[in-house]
Amino acid sequence: MSDELKRLERALSSAPAPEAEVKSGHLKAALDRFDQRQAADQESNAEPRLSGEGRDDIRSRPRSPRRDASMNRSLSHSPSHRRPLHRRPSVAAAASLAALSLGLYLLWPQAQDFDAMTGPEPSQDAEMAVSPPRTASKPESAPESTEGERLAIVASKTGPVADQMAGDMPLDTAVVTAVETAIETESKSAGQVTQLAEAPWLSGSRSPALSSSPSTSLSPSTSMEMRGLMPSQEVARIAPLPSPEPSVQMPTASSEAYPEFDASSVRVTAETPVSTFSVDVDTASYAVVRSSLMQGQLPPPQAVRIEEMINYFGYDYPQPDAEAFRPMVDVFASPWNPERQLVRVALQGRAATPGPRSPVNLVLLIDTSGSMRSPDKLPLLKRSMSLLLGELNDDDEVAIVTYAGSAGVALAPTAASNSEEIMQALESLAPSGGTAGEAGLSQAYRLAGQMNGEDETTRVLLATDGDFNLGLSDPEALERFIADWREGGVYLSVLGFGRGNLDDAVMQSLAQHGNGQAAYIDSLAEAQKVLVDQLAASLEPIANDVKVQVEFNPARVQEYRLIGYETRALRREDFRNDRVDAGDIGAGHQVTALYEIAPVGSSAALTRPSRYQQGQQVTGGQHDELGHVALRYKVPGESQSRLIETPISPGLTTADSEASFAAAIAGFGQLLGDDRYLGDWGWDEAIALAEASKGKDRYGYRAEAVRLMRLAGGLSDR
Fold it and tell me: What is the pTM (predicted TM-score) of this model?
């Protein structure tokens, strides 16, 4: 039929452009003609011609809806005899196949067009714009026509033309001739059929050659039904399939929110010798960076928090002896400037307590708003929670609170041993409505308070894409609300899912005030890392309000800068103030911070010593120290902090693989954001350093980082 289809294509392309009013009028006339003909057919078939015992009882055979939909005139209801073939069924078949040919030809390029498959759904206004005008033949209460119903109208219009044919010619020729005749007749009057070629719901880029398109096959049942003028809901089977949602909805310039900060700058030691910050064990930034790079985009600069990238990885640090954690300090040459040095301040939290742990109460606060539809949001969330449930003990309890336009309890507190009931509650969740985040948090905390018992660990685990578009009327009041529950022993952690409207700023704020952790889940592998491998650290806190204060010796250090921790900076006086909140460390957690320093007299120093401070001296045995590190923390349940101090010795050490890899990741983060202090050190050097210092890399996280560096380097060269 290739020649016939080419004739069809030429006929469609040669049709004149119609006017809107003419289109509407002729569409109405065509539908009226169809209604009149259908009414006449039904009247003529009121008493079908039967033979033999088929006349005895027409209603004795059960009638199927599909048979009724295929029109009574096509087949007899007789159980043993068929009505002789008549020209009208052949004509109906020709008309239906004409509609099928026209529909497949015009709709197939739509399904093949990549942009259409991945683009956003049309707005309601757009759908109204492409809908055909309503006519008197449709009742006012009828629903909006589907694409399949419109295609049925096409079939109905070709029917009268096909009826006029003798039926002696081959079926394929009859089909094409019927369509060509319809086009010619309608074009002469007002270009009615041109509406079909230009209709928005049938539009799309045409393939260069129809023969190059993949063949479309119909199932046997569909083929049988297509032989009659079947109802529009059946014709809808050949309409384009719904566009699959992308696995990740990537952000536009203003669709995501990140904490605003300026990259750390160089400080002159003689002017500002003290640096103070809160520890940070969050890892969300690295996962967001990875998500962006894997989608072929560089991450937004504000999404790059270097401390979270460094702390995403595990390091081979020695375990503490007696304290909750052990601080370590060493100095080694900077990889991007040998005239400068890196000071590493590292903390290793003690391992989880051996033996049975205390019972855990988890309230899963799940965002079920309409923004959670895409596969990397609510569907991934459900699969991630199934991993978490497998790690809980039988005496742990789980409850589920959901929030969309309003909040509600989807699962009352249930023993973790009843995993089937918990999973059923999870699987029943569906996205809809807005995002009443404040109401959801309030209900989750109340439920957690009821579950909380003596010597038990209670957590609210918020899973969301961060789109708090309703209910968050007073952020400061909400933070105070979270802080009050924190003092009562109920902590809050936040898991981010999906891209496109990620409100990372809100997620970070909630987790910081809730004494919890913020993580971003972009894959099931990341869910395994956060919810399984690091579960003990999340459920067993060993130190609260952990602060670090470093004082550099101006006689030995000309200048310094802290790499990262911009959103965790504290005032100098906050260090001794136990009422100031800071980060928390769980069992097995690690924290790494890197300072870049320029020794006094270094040619790499960016500042000069003050004229009146050049003779400044430090007396006593402290003269040779580069600086001093002090840490404060609270044992969970206590209100007064404890102090740990250690000096920074001046001697340089050879950087081991752990220190070198941390430096490589610090360079990675700076190359993605503010690289003004790196000089000529670039992607090649960062990749080489990371490659050489991967170490054991048990789970392959470091090898993945090297791959991401290569990808980022390629994207940066565009």
Answer: 0.66
